[in-house]
Amino acid sequence: MAFAFDPSWLEAVMLASVRMAMFLVIAPPFSSRAVPARVKAGLALALGLAVSPAVVPGYAPPAGAGFLGALLAEVGTGALLGFLVYAVFTAVQSAGGLIDLFGGFQLAQAFDPQSMVNGAPFARFFNLAAIALMCSSGAYLVVLMGMFRSFEAVPLGAGLDLPSSTEAVVESVSGILVSAAQIAGPLVVVLFLADAGLGLLTRVAPALNAFALGFPLKILIALGLAGTVFVALPAVVDALAAAATGAMRKAG
CA 85, 36, 126, 230 torsion: positive or negative? Predict the structure, then answer.
């Protein structure tokens, strides 16, 4: 019995797996340290095999040392697409950072080695909540579908279009603060009004020293109204998954 071996099929699967591996290392929720490196490597190979029927027919083996260039192109493509997803979902963590800043939790800033997040309680909590919602709601499947479609926009070894990629990166990074303000906006406004009220109270009764009560009052308001922001997170994560898919499609 003779077995036919096609080297071009192996090259295409390897290149697709490299793009997937770089994407999984950077993009949430796969980038979490809770996912072992061996699992990421196996998942990247499995996804490369899954996408092989779509990428193998149109793959042309590069001549000479072109395979090394194609390999580097796939590394850059996967890293850039993963960064776009990471930048989009950083808006949730930034929203928690705004609540920490206005609510007085910034003094409790610490580093979480599991999720690689450096922030105060709400920043870390919102980051973990976004990852949990991505896994439970299936939003990660939307992100993976956008990654699969990237092979249609950017064939293996072709590399990304630099002007389109730069524009997509700039839009994603610049949209972080806007998205964070939209997520945490209601609670930030309430905390700002609390500061304004304390300032007016201090002007009316200077001996009262209202700002001495400012920190516990703002912490109480933040804890009491944080649930209203958390209720909106499922819809926010769903919208961010669609935005991440659009950013990957635009980069191609």
Answer: positive
